[in-house]
Structure formats: structure tokens, C-alpha cells
Amino acid sequence: MKNNRITLKNALSLIFLVSLALILCVGCGKKEEKTEEKKNEQAATSEEEQATEEEADESSDYYYVTEDGSVGLCDYTAFTYHVVSTDVTEEQMDEKMQETLDYFRNVLYLDVTEVTDDLVSQYYEYSTVEELKEAYAEVIKAKNEEDAQAAYEEEIVTQLVEGSDIFVDVTEDSAATYNSLMAHYKALAYAEGVTLEEYAENELGITFSDLEQELAQDAVDHTMRKMVVLAVAEAEGYTVTKGEYNLRIAEYMEYYGYEDEASFEYDFTVEYIMENMLMDITLEKLVAMSNGI
Description:
Elements: E1 2-3, H1 8-26, H2 31-59, E2 62-65, E3 70-73, E4 80-81, H3 90-107, H4 117-123, H5 129-163, E5 165-167, H6 170-173, H7 175-192, H8 196-204, H9 208-236, H10 242-256, H11 261-268, H12 270-289, E6 291-292
Parallel strand pairs: 1-5, 4-6
Antiparallel strand pairs: 2-3, 3-5
Helix pairs in contact: 1-2, 3-5, 5-9, 5-12, 7-8, 7-9, 9-12
């Protein structure tokens, strides 16, 4: 991946500072000199924009521009991902049955050594241990498929970020994400009745300084990932239709623990929700067009 840290915003700032220094050296200057200076500045800006666009065009078939930066997309139509098994393993079933036994012992305070048909029929909606295992298998299978999909998407996004050209000062543009992540950990610390420094050391096993560095890097990574995924959505013309929104909103509300749609939309904003939906839709389509190996 090519990172271009000299953005258009930085170039304009540099031009402005140079111009200001010249003005201070010669005094107020004449109106004609200021006019000439402005023309030079506009010319430099135009050259910078043209250079950036040419560089992106040379490395990508698609050039995606936002207010904060731009992405030169790589060819994302031939990505691959490693297929993982979603079958229920013996270890997973044994762990689930051990949880059931622990429930009988530690919650119901029953003096038992194994899960039996009688216990299952008495405390569950099933008649036998085998029926309970079948129900567990469905839950485990669904979780395995969900984890597999997440793993495929992670591989796709990694290839997308590494293969594309990102023209943005991500450390600056990721500030909002960093603040959001930090607020999340502050809330966790508050819930535990400790300071954030204490939470980092006691719960995470790291210093507060280490936490700051990790969150800063996470924010940068998130910004870059969001940019390239939305660039694909723009290139392919993907959108969130009203029907798609209605289908997915319940799932989002359940994930965040909301029951009232109006409250959910007020807290997160419809724009934010739709952006995340668009990213999910795009990732699903990217996996669908990729090749499992």
C-alpha cells in the first residue's frame, strides 16, 4: 500500500505560510503584488490537484474522492479468502455440555455428576440429552458460520487496504474514531468504579500510555478500512434501499441493545446507521465475488 501523507490540505497550508512570510518581509505590499501572489497560489493548487489525480490514475482503475482524502482502488474482483470449516466439533459440544452441568451445580445447586434425560426434561424444553445436543448444534453451527463470514471479510479488507493507494492524513482524520474508542473505555472504567488508568492496568494489563497508542492505531486502521470499503461501494453503485434498511435495522438494534427504533436512530443518527449498513452490504458482496481457497 502506498501512503501519501502530503495531502492537498497540507500543501495549501504550506503555500499559505510561505506567502505570509513574504508579505511580512516586504511590508504591506501593493495591491498588484497581492494579486500576482494569489494567481501563483491558485496555479500551485491546480498543479497539486492535477499531480494527485494523475498519480491515482496511474495506479488504479478507480479514483474515489471525499472531503478528507481519496482512494485509488486496486482490482478487488479477484480476491481470495481461506475457507474455514463451520462444522460443530467435539470440543465445542463438550464445552457446551460442561456449561450445562455447571448450571445444574452452581446455579441450581444440584448434586449431579452428569447431564441426564431426567434433568433435561425437568429444566429444559427438550425430552432427552440428544435433543438438547441437537439444539446446541444448531446454535454452534450458526455461530461458526458467523465467525467464518467475519474471517472472510477480514481477509478481503486486508487485501483491499494493502492493495489500494490511500491519499489521506489518516492520523488527523481518525480523531473522531479515536475519541469514540476512548469514550467506550472510559464508560467501562466508570462502570467498574475505577479510573481509566486503573482499568487499563487491572483489566487490560497495560499502561494508560499503551492504551492510548493502541487506540490511536485502531482509529487509523478503522479510518483506512472505512475509506476503501466505501470506495468500492461508490465504484459499484451500491446503496442502502428503504427495504434493505428495514430488513437490517432490527438486527442492528438487537446488537446494540435497543428496542425502540426512534431512540436508536436518535442516538446513532440515520446517516451513521446507513453508512455502516452500506459497509456491511459491500463486504458481503466482496466476499460473494471473491474465490474461496
